[in-house]
Write a structure and sequence with these properties.
- It is a single chain.
- This protein is of the alpha+beta class.
- The protein is 44% helix and 14% strand.
- It is globular, with a radius of gyration of 21 Å.
Length: 345
C-alpha cells in the first residue's frame, strides 16, 4: 500500500499542492492529452480547486500548450518547458514520423520538407491562428498532391521543428506560431535536459522503474539511465515485488485518506505513465482499463486501486465496478461526481 499511496501523492491525486493548472503541467513535465475532454479533467482534478475555466485561461494564455512530443502522441506541456523538451524529443520524433510515412509508401526529400514547412508557417502567420483545415487548404494551393496530404505527418513535422504549437482551447485543434506564442528561453544541453526530464518524471510519478521512465519518455534506455544517474542522491532505489523502483527525495508519505474515490479520465497519467501498471491494476482486470492498441478508458480508483469504470457523459457518473468484493459507499461516489460537474461550470 505504501507504493500506491506514494503514487497518489506524487501524481497530485491526493492532497494536491497546486492551485494553478500551469503549475500542475509543469510538475509533470508532460501530461498525456489524447482526448480533448479528458485532458481538462486530468489537470483540473489535480488542483486544489478543480476548474475548467482556470484550465482554459492557462491554455488560452499560452502557459499550457498541446503538442506531439513524447512517444509522438499529444502532450500538455508548460510554456517554460516547451523549448528544451521539444529539442530533446526532436530526433526520435522525426525518425518515428519518417518510418511511418515510409510504411505508407511515400517519402519527402529535403526540399519537399522545406516547402511544406514554409507553406504551413506562412498560412499560420497570415492569420494568427488557424485550424487544421486552413493549413490543409494552403498545402493544396501550394501544390502538395492530395495523395501526399497526410495531415498528421505534416503537422507533427511542423510541431517537432518548432514552427507551430496549439492555439486557443476548443473542440477543434487550432495552431499558432511558436515564435509568437512561447517566450524564448536559454537552451539546455542534452545532458541537462535528460536530468530535468528524469527529475520531473520521478517526482511526479514515483515510485517508478527505469522501464516506466523509458516507456513514458519514448527515449532509449541508455539515455534514461544517464538521466537517472545524473540525479545522484535525489533518487533512492527500493526493491519491491522483484523490481527496482526509484523514489524521489521530495516524495511525500502522508496525506492520503482512507476511502478515497477518484474518477480518472481516459489516458490519465496514473495508468498511461507506467509500464508497471500492475501496482494499481490487477493484470487480470487490465482489459477493463485499456486494450493492447493504446486505447485507454475512464476508470474508478478506490484507495488508489483501479476497481471500475465510469462514464463522464453520464449525469450520475455511470459507475460500474469490475473488481469482485468491492463496495464503494454511494455518498462517496456522489461527492466526487459533484466535484466533477462543479469543475465544468
Amino acid at each position: 500500500m505504501k507504493q500506491v499511496s506514494a503514487r497518489l501523492l506524487s501524481q497530485q491525486l491526493a492532497a494536491p499542492q497546486f492551485g494553478n493548472p500551469a503549475e500542475v503541467v509543469s510538475w509533470f513535465g508532460a501530461m498525456q492529452a489524447q482526448d480533448y475532454r479528458a485532458m481538462r479533467w486530468a489537470v483540473a482534478m489535480r488542483t486544489r480547486k478543480p476548474s475548467y475555466k482556470a484550465f482554459k485561461t492557462a491554455f488560452d494564455d499560452g502557459r499550457v500548450l498541446r503538442a506531439h512530443l513524447l512517444r509522438g502522441t499529444w502532450q500538455l506541456v508548460s510554456s517554460d518547458d516547451y523549448h528544451w523538451l521539444r529539442a530533446l524529443c526532436h530526433d526520435k520524433g522525426m525518425a518515428v514520423l519518417d518510418g511511418w510515412t515510409k510504411s505508407l509508401g511515400f517519402t519527402y526529400s529535403g526540399k519537399e520538407k522545406e516547402r511544406i514547412l514554409t507553406i504551413i508557417e506562412d498560412s499560420v502567420a497570415s492569420r494568427g491562428e488557424v485550424t487544421e483545415d486552413v493549413i490543409g487548404e494552403a498545402l493544396l494551393e501550394g501544390g502538395i498532391p492530395k495523395d501526399r496530404l497526410v495531415y498528421n505527418h505534416q503537422l507533427r513535422m511542423a510541431e517537432l521543428e518548432g514552427l507551430v504549437c496549439s492555439g486557443s482551447l476548443g473542440p477543434r485543434n487550432t495552431y499558432r506560431l511558436v515564435r509568437e506564442r512561447v517566450p524564448v528561453s536559454s537552451p539546455l544541453s542534452r545532458e541537462e535536459s535528460l536530468a530535468l526530464l528524469a527529475r520531473k518524471y520521478f517526482r511526479s510519478h514515483g515510485p517508478a522503474t527505469l522501464e516506466d521512465f523509458v516507456w513514458w519518455s519514448g527515449l532509449n534506455a541508455g539515455e534514461c539511465r544517464r538521466g537517472i544517474a545524473s540525479l545522484g542522491d535525489e533518487l533512492r532505489p527500493e526493491r519491491w515485488k522483484g523490481r527496482d523502483f526509484y523514489i524521489h527525495s521530495e516524495t511525500r508519505t502522508r496525506g492520503v485518506r482512507s476511502g478515497t474515490v477518484l474518477l480518472l479520465p481516459a489516458y490519465d497519467e496514473y495508468l498511461i505513465g507506467y509500464k508497471s501498471r500492475d501496482v494499481v491494476l490487477h493484470p487480470d482486470k487490465a482489459h477493463h482499463a485499456h486494450n493492447n492498441f493504446g486505447i485507454f478508458k475512464s476508470v474508478v480508483a478506490w484507495d488508489g486501486e483501479i476497481v471500475g469504470n465510469w462514464k463522464p457523459s453520464s449525469e450520475d457518473g455511470g459507475v460500474s465496478l469490475f473488481k469482485d468484493g468491492v463496495s464503494i459507499p454511494e455518498e462517496s461516489i456522489e461527492k466526487v461526481i459533484s466535484t466533477y460537474h462543479a469543475a465544468q461550470k
